[in-house]
Amino acid sequence: MKTPVPVNRIDDLAQDLAARHHRTPSAGDQIDKAVVDADLAQLASDGYLILPNLLSAKDCADIRRAVHPLLGEPGRNAFEGVKTRRAYSVMAKTRAVDQLVDHPRVLALLDRLLDPNYLLSQLQVIDIGAGESAQIEHFDDAMYPIPRPRPALSAATVWAIDEFTPDNGATVVLPGSHHWDSQRRPATSDKRRPAVMPAGSCVFFLDTLWHGGGANTTDRNRLAVTAQYCQPWLRSQEAFALSTPQDIVRQLSPDLQRMLGYSIHPPICRGSQRNAPTAASWPALTMSDRTAVAPPLGCARPQWPAASRAGGRPRDGASKPGKIRTNSPGAQGYWSVAAVAPRIGQQCRDRGLSSLWDGRRYG
Ligand SMILES: O=C(O)CCC(=O)C(=O)O
After folding, report:
1. Quick check: is 104 in a domain?
2. Is 101 a domain residue?
3. Residue 121: domain span
4. Smallest CA separation from ligand 1 atom 9, residue
């Protein structure tokens, strides 16, 4: 075990207090840096890129066979798509799409765009039915209420399991729209591009990019799998730690385990009993245990002092509430967006993404 780091100043909290900042080598490490640099340059300018032919025809056929039985009823509204069927909590239901979620080419980008121990936010199968209308255009990290323009807080992949054509519901993207401010909405005059690509390819985009499922004017369905990933300090769209039984988690790659939340964001976010949770160390819980216990599974809910509930930070780990340090940047001990934004901005500049960031909005 590492020696605990001394904490004397507020800046020391950026370190690994729990001495458990587990970083397994990412499968993305195997991708040539020049390839990743080129992909990132295209993302910075257009907000999206197509990664062609990453899966074989056999991979696609296997995925098609595995996910078809998982598809539910058609959607409840025009956004979900009234002729579109989806499957949720897919991690718990099949291993057929793991190879998409931790694909090295995708992880290589995420490793540079997001902070270490980023999370899987959503994993869905989307089968756009014949005759479906175009989906309402949107951007996917809109649920995080931070003004734009700003860096993307999450990123998405949409994998073509069937070929995406201009008329079968290919995802339609609005190039450059990741730069838009919070007020701007798509106009008919804005440029749109259907993500036309062979089966086995994926479109990768920043979640600040406006897009939508395309209209399917053909007489055949369009099958896709979408995986989204978010910063490790945000709430994910799907609750994978609840929906994925631990006997399944134990079978997954280290990348998948950390992305499901078996990881920590320093100093202590998502800890369990002062440690980073590991799939190996957690007891196997039954489904009824899981529904009875709120996350984090099996941990007593800490009784924070009032100042902590008001937004301050505890002095010590999750199992040991203590006095709140009051030398935090905000007037009432809050770690405000204004306080963290310059750090986010610096990270973006370090990663060559300065064009995505206008730090003055929070200044
Ligand atoms: O199916 C697609 O191509 C995109 C779907 C989408 O953007 C969504 O449902 O949020």
Report:
1. yes
2. yes
3. 27-230
4. 80
Tell me the pLDDT tens digit for each residue of 188-245: 999 999 999 999 999 999 999 999 999 999 999 999 999 999 999 999 999 998 999 9
d(CA 162, CA 187): 29
Adjacent-strand bridge partners of 159: 202, 225
Please tell me the distance between residue 250's alpha carbon and the centre of ligand 1 in angstroms. Answer: 30
CATH of the domain at 116: 2.60.120.620
Establish whether residue 75 lines the binding site of ligand 1, counting it when its CB lies within 6 angstroms of any ligand atom.
no
pTM for this predicted structure: 0.77
125 close to 191: Cβ distance less than 8 angstroms:
no
Ligand 1 centre to CA of 171 (Å) is 7
Phi, psi at 41, each rounded to 5° = -65, -40
Counting atoms of ligand 1 from 1, which one is nearest the CA of 80? Answer: 9
Sign of the Cα pseudo-torsion (265, 269, 275, 281, in order): negative
Burial class (CB in 10 A: 0-12, 13-18, 19+), 259: buried
Ligand 1 within 6 A of CB of 215: no
Nearest to 17 by CA among 311, 193, 359, 275: 275
Looking at the CA of residue 156, tell me the nearest atom of ligand 1. Answer: 7
How far is the C-alpha of 344 from the C-alpha of 280, rounded, in Å?
A: 33
Question: Is residue 329 in a domain?
Answer: no
Number of folded domains that form the chain: 1
DSSP string over 72-118: -SBPSSTTT-TTEEEE-SGGGT-STTHHHHT-HHHHHHHHHHS-TT-
